TrEMBL record:
Keywords: Transferase. The keyword Transferase applies. It comes from the Bacteria. This is Glycosyltransferase family 4 protein. The lineage of its organism: Bacteria, Pseudomonadati, Bacteroidota, Flavobacteriia, Flavobacteriales. It comes from Polaribacter haliotis. InterPro entries: Glyco_trans_1 (IPR001296). Residues 207-353 form the Glycosyl transferase family domain. The keyword Transferase applies.
């Protein structure tokens, strides 16, 4: 039965866009709409040309004079504007509880007494000098970014994170009470439950189709994937690679490149579904990742994952259970050897396929997330 509490859903981006934040905002919105009668969408926050112009100029000056960057997403100007916009949206609205995923800039200067619950996959402290977009900020920008997130945290009742990696850092950096922090794993960005009969009918005795699913070739470990593929081919294994989401400058008869599949377009979503049904292994040795929605999608389709033990990845891929997570300093030969172990042991692959489906059904789906989030949100109103 749906709960009658009215939920305000705060996002900077458009939560109705299936590509926004890897589809996470969209899935969260749909999951909450299953649990509550009324979910009021308060985003997206429209861009301000004036503020964007000022922020861009600061970034240009920082690059010219300091050879450094400015955090154009987390800064006082943009946060003030975001909070002001949400304050206006809340005016004269009856809302019982607020849910704000990845929206620290909208919360920092928010003026409300409504209980707030957040959801994030990392803290800004974890992102700095780790995530590709968070390198080389000049000192004031670093201070400002951390200030925004801490100020936002002071407005929050409950915090949810997608991994223990993120939750532990938040407790330490924000000095949060453990009872106010929860781990709620995100689900796969799919509208359907993949058919088991299609998954279990894959043939592992013919050509093994490996999938690299990512928008960024370099930062997601694409060069390692290509080198490992060549090693496997030299050893005589019948393998192919499909790259989906980016367009690396490689030309090889065993490599197929699909620039991008937009899940907002029905025909392309169907193509995405067919691609995953045909895939035997997902291979994304990411250099930095806070979670890994693509890995959730792999589990949904019973696809073992070969990746890296970094950031929050282990929340999705358990080493030797639904895939392999190798150390960050592993080379192409190391990855090729792991894949070779799977190719030489069909019973191990089959076990990982079953384990992947179990992990999706138990944890990595949005229905489970929605039910847990409902409990957390309602406990704020008690």
């Amino acid at each position: 039965m749906k709960n009658k509490n009215i939920i305000g859903f705060i996002t900077v981006l458009d939560p109705r866009d299936k590509t926004s934040w890897s589809g996470t905002h969209y899935r969260m919105l749909k999951a909450l709409e299953k649990e509550f009668e009324t979910v009021v969408v308060l985003g997206p926050i429209p861009n301000s040309r004036v503020i964007s112009g000022i922020v861009n100029k600061i970034d240009v000056l920082a690059r010219f004079f300091l050879n450094k960057k400015y955090n154009k997403e987390q800064n006082i100007l943009k946060s003030w504007y975001h909070s002001k916009y949400i304050n206006k949206r809340l005016k004269n609205k009856k809302i019982d509880l607020l849910f704000a995923p990845a929206s620290s800039t909208a919360l920092a200067f928010l003026n409300t007494k409504i209980p707030i619950c957040t959801s994030d996959d990392a803290t800004v402290d974890l992102l700095i000098d780790y995530h590709p977009g968070y390198f080389n900020f000049f000192k004031f920008s670093l201070i400002e970014s951390k200030y925004i997130e801490r100020k936002a945290a002071s407005k929050v009742t409950y915090f949810t994170f997608s991994s223990e990696w993120a939750s532990k850092d938040a407790i330490k950096k924000y000095k949060l009470k453990k009872k106010d922090v929860f781990i709620t794993k995100y689900g796969a960005n799919v509208d359907y439950k993949p058919q088991k009969r299609n998954i279990l009918s894959r043939d592992y005795n013919s050509t093994i189709k490996i999938l690299f699913l990512a928008r960024h070739w370099e930062t997601k470990g694409g060069p390692l994937v290509f080198e490992a593929l060549k090693i496997l081919l030299e050893k005589g294994y019948d393998v192919t690679l499909t790259v989906c989401g980016c367009t690396p400058a490689i030309n090889h008869p065993k490599v197929n490149i699909i620039p991008f599949l937009n899940k907002n377009i029905v025909t392309q979503e169907k193509s995405f579904k067919e691609l995953l049904y045909q895939t035997h292994l997902m291979f994304v040795p990411t250099r930095a990742d806070c979670y890994g929605i693509a890995f959730c999608e792999a589990s949904a389709f019973g696809i073992p994952v070969i990746t890296t033990d970094t950031g929050g990845v282990s929340a999705v891929v358990e080493n030797n259970y639904n895939g392999f997570t190798l150390p960050l300093d592993s080379n192409a030969e190391d990855y090729a050897n792991k894949i070779q172990i799977l190719l030489n042991n069909l019973s191990l692959i089959n076990n990982m396929v079953i384990n992947s489906m179990h992990k999706f059904e138990a944890e990595l789906n949005w229905d489970s997330w929605g039910k847990k989030m409902k409990e957390i949100l309602l406990s704020m109103s008690n």
